[in-house]
């Protein structure tokens, strides 16, 4: 029997284990004592204890746990070590198979400067900015002047919204540069940044790609992730209401071309910034892992991306049956243990927990009644996804789902999610990435 070790926790571990069981494999996880009562631990066939929460980010600890579990395959989920080339190499060196691209490709596409260069070679458009990484204020100033203000400073090794800043004019560059490079050096061990023109009216659009063992790449329909706080996504949907059929086909073709050009294998996501004024989509970055928001793609295409990941990792180039054209519309809401105004974490013991049910509703949850949300991890509780024949119907289902959700004990962003679903510009599909800041200008009632 094949044993799949999930080097992750909470909702993504539970979600991967669900497919592992359906395929007839054995599922394994590792967990610290603070997670002992969470559903993902109970769902695993094998559970290995960790010394503490920090072990999820330790290559040595996670490889050791995988070996203790007798793993054949190691699925990294997202976050933690999912885009860590050293982890991928260590897994392979230990005689196990890493479920994802090669370490070399993780390094290439995980560096925003080299990824930008690879995108240009593959024929993708990039926003005006630095030709490569910059490591001095003078170089950043030169690049910003060439691109034209406002600009975005982004940590080369950054991710998850960390190490980014918008600079409106030359007077603000020095302070932003010092802040971003300092943060990048502290968090990622790499102070380098890239400079790109900041597009004011934009949508954040990404394409799900699957790189096959024979070198081919499949690009599924796009996801729109424009509802964000602190550059982190909160609401995602597929397909994007900002694209027509021609623009969609062009974006998918470009994403597939880049995936093949870099020799990518497995599930990945190519992110674009879509300029609402010009209609152009510019390459942002590639995430070399499964995304948090992958359920919306699964629902509109009728495919299990985790099963496909595992097949590719085992060398299978077969493309599973799926709906090539997206069927209907799906909206995903990230349910966080955080307040609805400042978005600050609010951990605690869950004293009441009820997730929505019904036609077209899917919930991927990491917690349950009586469990504890600790301050050691990202505060994501669950993902609530609504699928329907049209976008309007999907929004209605999402509203009903939020209204029937109950989480008591820790703080929760249900009020914010409900408000997004009523916000006129979101309902009309005319919003851009600034929607949350505009909403925050008026307090939640």
Strand runs, count: 20
Classified by CATH, the class of the largest domain is: Alpha Beta
CATH topology of the largest domain: D-amino Acid Aminotransferase, Chain A, domain 1
- Please state roughly what percent of the residues sit in beta strands, choosing from under 5%, 5-15%, 15-25%, 25-35%, 35-45% or over 45%: 25-35%
| Terminal residue distance | 54 Å
Q: What does this protein look like?
A:
- Helices cover 33% and strands 25% of the residues.
- By secondary structure, it is α+β, with helices and mostly antiparallel strands.
- It has three domains: 3-99, Rossmann fold (3-Layer(aba) Sandwich), CATH 3.40.50; 128-197, Dna Ligase, domain 1 (2-Layer Sandwich), CATH 3.30.1490; 202-440, D-amino Acid Aminotransferase, Chain A, domain 1 (2-Layer Sandwich), CATH 3.30.470.
- Strands 13-12-9-10-11-14-19-17 form an eight-stranded antiparallel sheet, with helices on both faces. A five-stranded parallel sheet has the order 3-2-1-4-5.
- The longest helix has 17 residues, at 245-261.
- The chain is globular.
- The model has no long low-confidence stretch (mean pLDDT 95).
